[in-house]
Amino acid sequence: MVSGNLAADAEIKTIVLKSGGKADVAQATLYVRGVRNREESFTVSLSIWEKSVAWRKLPYLKKGSLIICTGSVEPSPFTSKVDNSPKAGLQMSVLDIDLDIIRNMNEPVEEVAGDQSADGDRELAEVS
Predict the structure, then answer these.
(1) Contacts of 103 (CB under 8 A, 6+ apart)
(2) What DSSP designation does 55 have?
(3) In the chain, which ranges are continuous DSSP H helix?
(4) What does the domain layout of the chain look like in residue ranges?
């Protein structure tokens, strides 16, 4: 389980599976405050598959919303674009989402944690 604020609205993409079929997956980034130091934060890249329970909650996932995600977390190593140093991110395949604080679609949204994207856009690998 991981709790944090959405960095932006989820984006839905159609991907081609290794089996040749197609599937929709929503991708989003979650800003998570540090446990020991509340001033520090990190990001978790979220993947929400179309047949999961979490998929039904997509209409409510707006930038800034505080949500709690349940799923499996894997490390996602990458190279920093700033100084070419090795970094480790986190990727979560989300099974379910609890909506804690939902942003009103008409309400202006403030920045939650600034622009802390460590590796920019990542491509989703094909999955079997």
Answers:
(1) 62, 63, 64, 65, 109
(2) G
(3) none
(4) 2-101
Region 2-101: CATH code? 2.40.50.140
Q: Determine the 3-state secondary structure of 36 from DSSP.
A: coil
pLDDT-based confidence at residue 33 (cuts at 50, 70, 90): confident
Taking only the tens place, the pLDDT of each residue in 64-119 is 999 999 999 999 887 878 888 887 789 999 999 998 876 565 555 444 444 433 33
**Phi/psi of residue 80, nearest 5 degrees:** -65, 135
**How is residue 34 annotated by DSSP?**
-
Q: Give ∠ CA 7-25-15 in degrees, rounded to 5.
A: 125
d(CA 29, CA 15): 18
Contacts of 34 (CB under 8 A, 6+ apart): 40, 41, 42
Q: Which residue has the tokens 């405050």?
A: 33
Q: Could you tell me if 58 and 64 are in contact, meaning their C-beta atoms sit under 8 angstroms apart?
A: no
- Nearest residue to 84 via CA among 110, 57, 118, 112: 118
